[in-house]
Design a protein that fits this description.
By secondary structure, the protein is mainly alpha-helical. The chain is built from two helices and no strands. The radius of gyration is 15 Å and the shape is globular. The mean pLDDT is 79.
Length: 58
């Protein structure tokens, strides 16, 4: 029987995204597609979580 790890909890996934983004930034790898994808996902989740409607504050 193969051991299949349990799917990570959402908070684990969020932590992994932030860790990945941090590591790429720390290594100066901010111009690649991997950074762009993670960056977009992190900001999308933040905007969703905090209910920002896209309008800038005056």
């Amino acid at each position: 029987m193969d051991h299949v790890p349990a799917a990570p909890l959402p908070s684990d996934a969020d932590s992994s995204l932030l860790e990945g983004l941090f590591q790429l930034a720390l290594n100066g790898q901010t111009q690649g597609s991997e950074f762009d994808l993670i960056d977009h996902e992190v900001y999308t989740r933040l905007l969703s979580a905090y209910g920002v409607d896209g309008r800038l504050a005056a």
